[in-house]
Design brief:
Low-confidence stretches: 86-92, 388-392
Number of strands: 22
Shape: globular
Mean pLDDT: 78
Structural class: mainly beta
Protein name: F-box domain-containing protein
InterPro entries: F-box-like_dom_sf, F-box_dom, KIB1-4_b-propeller, SCF_F-box_domain
Organism: Populus tomentosa
Number of helices: 5
Order of helices and strands: HHHHEEEEEEEEEEEEEEEHEEEEEEE
Distance between the termini: 43 Å
Helix content: under 10%
Radius of gyration: 22 Å
Strand content: 35-45%
Number of domains: 2
Length: about 400
């Protein structure tokens, strides 16, 4: 170890700059005191730091003291153990999914990859030298300072308006809000810019190969160009499901069609409704209506040569994860526990990003069965920590 500890500071700095994840920089600094002194703690230069944003109507804070929403970026990783973990106080698999965020003060925060529920676990009890992190996806989370989710925002993606390190003034947001409107907001704007005034039925948005793609409830996929114009990319799927999700898997883009036992959109029934004092009803009041539950799924892939949709009958070894703010794919061969050919998803009782009032379920393709994760605990082993409660 003494030879490694004597590496030149310039070389250590060069190596640290090639590390993509801040948690990897922390792991690098944990090797020895010499490395820790030679490499500065990870900064926010390459990633989006938590910001306080004063979002315009129709987004409304649940309380006047929460005037600004907090925007933070999270990273979904596959956490691998490189050596036997000897801490008997923690039961851990050899490879698990973990969602990591970071506060402005540099504190690592852990969230469940599906529900966004912040966990009480931390990396403090772990030796970072025993771990390897493989980045799978990134997501953005909007919440109020009191950790309450921002009602009315169904999905948000963030991009810098200029290269390099960004601040509030160089921040733009693409969001699906009001249960289907596609909007754009730049820091300082007094109102949202509606990108499509003819379609209020958008379901999901994703960054695929560096480009923004959206899908509506009919399965039509469109992309958004640099001028914020929405351009149709695929024909309509016309699937009978009530909710569509976009998932990238092994370089291809898939549409997941979720069949529901009822209509999930409720906001349009309450447009321009005022309370007894003549004020617009707040989102928190509007969303207090039970959401329909998923009863089946279909998965489609676009045949770009023929311009037709292909119904996928099996995911083979793959697992599709439909999180509240991010969807992604992973192979069960890379994880401990769990099985392939299934979809993990969140059944929320109420609409809103980051809520914890629903339950995680698993859909299995071989028999189209759906089970609460709480009754099949072996399927929870792919996550760390393995939260299996009905409210997870």
């Amino acid at each position: 170890m003494s030879q490694w500890a004597d590496l030149p500071k310039e070389l250590l700095e060069m190596i640290s700059k090639r590390l993509d994840l801040r948690v990897e920089v922390l792991r690098f600094r944990a090797v020895c005191s010499s490395w820790r002194c030679s490499v500065s703690p990870p900064s926010f230069d390459q990633e989006i730091p938590p910001f306080f944003l004063k979002l315009p109507p129709p987004i409304r804070a649940p309380d006047p003291i929460f005037a600004d929403a907090v925007l933070m970026q999270t990273t979904i990783c596959r956490m691998e153990f490189l050596s036997n973990y000897s801490n008997s106080s923690c039961s851990l698999s050899n490879s698990s999914l973990v969602k990591v965020g970071e506060s402005k003060h540099g504190k690592l925060q852990l969230f469940h990859p599906i529900s966004n529920q912040e966990t009480k676990e931390s990396f403090i009890s772990l030796n970072l030298l025993d771990l390897k992190f493989v980045q799978l996806s990134k997501a953005c989370l909007l919440k109020w300072p009191g950790k309450t989710s921002v009602f009315g925002i169904n999905k948000v993606v963030v991009f810098p308006l200029s290269g390099g390190c960004i601040d509030n003034c160089e921040l733009g947001i693409l969001a699906i809000y009001h249960e289907g409107k596609l909007g754009y907001w730049r820091y300082g704007d007094k109102e949202w810019t509606l990108l499509d005034d003819r379609n209020f039925e958008y379901d999901d948005i994703i960054v695929y190969k560096g480009q923004f793609y959206v899908v509506d409830r009919w399965g039509t996929v469109s992309w958004i160009d640099s001028s914020l114009k929405v351009i149709q990319y695929s024909p309509s799927l016309y699937g009978c499901g009530g909710q569509k999700n976009l998932v990238e898997s092994r370089g291809d883009l898939y549409v997941v069609d979720r069949y529901l036992d009822g209509e999930r959109r409720t906001w349009k029934d309450y447009e321009n409704v005022m309370d007894t004092n003549g004020n617009p009803l707040r989102f928190s009041r509007l969303m207090r209506k039970a959401r329909p539950m998923a009863v089946d799924f279909r998965v489609y892939k676009l045949d770009e040569e023929w311009g037709t949709w292909v119904n996928i009958k099996s995911l083979d070894d793959r697992i599709f994860i439909l999180g509240i703010d991010c969807s992604f794919s992973v192979s069960c061969r890379d994880l401990s526990g769990g099985k392939g050919n299934c979809i993990y998803f969140y059944n929320s009782l109420y609409e809103g990003q980051g809520r914890s009032d629903g339950a995680i379920h698993v859909f299995r393709f071989e028999d189209h069965s759906i089970d609460n994760l709480a009754v099949i605990p072996e399927f929870s082993e792919i996550f760390w920590p393995a939260i299996i409660g009905s409210s997870a």
